[in-house]
Design brief:
CATH class: Mainly Alpha
Protein name: Kinase-like domain-containing protein
Strand order of the largest sheet: 1-4
CATH superfamily: Transferase(Phosphotransferase) domain 1
Structural class: mainly alpha
Strand content: 5-15%
CATH topology: Transferase(Phosphotransferase), domain 1
Distance between the termini: 32 Å
Keywords: Kinase, Transferase
Organism: Glomus cerebriforme
CATH architecture: Orthogonal Bundle
Pfam family, one: PK_Tyr_Ser-Thr
Largest sheet: 2 strands, antiparallel
GO molecular function: ATP binding; protein serine/threonine kinase activity
Number of strands: 4
């Protein structure tokens, strides 16, 4: 496997270095580019299942989805996860590891990424070092509540829709792109 070099590092690193210079136009563009990449993956009947800001690379200011190592067809969706993924995993999977993750799981992860892009901070940053507390918080359906001043209401509504606890209620990627 050969990958293009990403001169901007990961999305998380990019946010840490540049957050205060980013406009809402920039933030929305980042999410549009991630959503377009996710649409390509979903069109091939593949679910990423490991989508988080350290798996989004930045090259010349453009977003690229990386690390399809957990990706597979939607028929094999119960592979394990790493601790850094926890905030980006839907509660149903954390409650039941045999839960079959699919494209709706990626939409949940995208919603959490949208929140991080909005705030410039990793989700549940204050509890990230306490694995069991973090699991309990997410499995109880709690989400980040901080809304950044100036955040467009439509953007906030969209990421909340994406991380809906009911997978059936989440938008499909085409709707996400349309609403952006």
């Amino acid at each position: 496997l050969v990958m293009q070099y990403a001169n901007g590092g990961t999305l998380r690193q990019h946010l840490q270095r540049n957050y205060h210079q980013l406009t809402w136009y920039d933030k929305t563009r980042f999410i549009k580019e991630i959503a377009a990449g996710l649409q390509c993956i979903h069109n091939e009947k593949i679910a990423h299942r490991n989508l988080h800001p350290n798996n989004v690379l930045v090259h010349d200011g453009r977003m690229m989805i990386a690390d399809l190592g957990f990706s597979d067809t939607w028929h094999d969706s119960t592979k394990p996860y790493h601790d850094e993924m926890i905030p980006f995993l839907e509660p149903l999977f954390l409650q039941n590891n045999s839960y079959r993750r699919d494209q709706r799981s990626d939409i949940y992860s995208l919603g959490v990424i949208m929140c991080e892009v909005s705030s410039g901070r990793p989700p549940f940053e204050s509890t990230a070092s306490n694995f069991h507390l973090l699991l309990r918080i997410i499995m109880n359906g709690e989400r980040e509540t901080t809304i950044i001043p100036g955040a467009p209401l439509q953007y906030v509504q969209l990421y909340r829709h994406c991380w809906d606890g009911d997978p059936i209620s989440r938008p499909v990627i085409q709707e996400v792109i349309h609403r952006l």
